[in-house]
Design brief:
about 170 residues, alpha+beta, Nucleoside Triphosphate Pyrophosphohydrolase, 2 domains, four-stranded mixed sheet, three-stranded antiparallel sheet, 3 helices, 12 strands
Length: about 170
């Protein structure tokens, strides 16, 4: 029904188990790559940003779409450096989530590193108002207070909290 370089909107004829049919809209999106780093002090690199669609502020991890011909891991490293000014060390896959699988086929692939090198002021500094190393131990409470509103980011941060700190709050 509609297509641009970011997404497609399609109308599908869905057959239900009882044989009935219904029209269902679906949005096809490019994969999203997400990356962060956790330093020796167990602080996680995060961005404070505004999302105009929901008119909300919150903490997020660096993220963006995977470009044509780019691997998901390369996209994650590129986005982290462009948005934070920090180049990750060896990235490890954290998890893949489907934030809205009743409407979109979007998959968000989250990566993390235990090392990062500061390369300078972020190229895409307009994407966030600040970038900070946040103590990982604060993450569960930040999520509970609504300071990490994006479900994909909350899932990744909770997984990192579990991996690095054993899951205890």
């Amino acid at each position: 029904m509609y297509e641009n370089r970011w997404f497609q909107v399609n109308l599908a004829d869905v057959e239900l188990p009882d044989g009935r049919h219904l029209d269902h809209f679906l949005i096809r999106l490019r994969p999203v790559a997400v990356a962060t780093a956790v330093n020796e002090a167990n602080e996680v690199l995060m961005l404070w940003r505004h999302r105009f669609i929901t008119d909300s502020w919150g903490w997020e991890l660096a993220a963006g779409v995977v470009e044509d011909g780019e691997s998901v891991e390369s996209a994650a490293a590129r986005e982290m450096e462009e948005e934070t000014g920090w180049r990750p060390g060896r990235l490890r896959h954290l998890l893949t989530v489907e934030p809205s699988n009743g409407l979109t086929d979007s998959r968000h692939h989250l990566y993390w590193s235990d090392a990062a090198t500061y390369t300078g002021h972020p190229e895409d500094d307009f994407e966030s108002s600040r970038r900070e190393w946040i103590p990982l131990q604060l993450v569960p409470e930040m999520i509970a207070r609504g300071q990490v509103p994006a479900a994909n980011m909350a899932a990744g941060l909770l997984m990192l909290h579990h991996l690095r700190l054993g899951g205890g709050a």
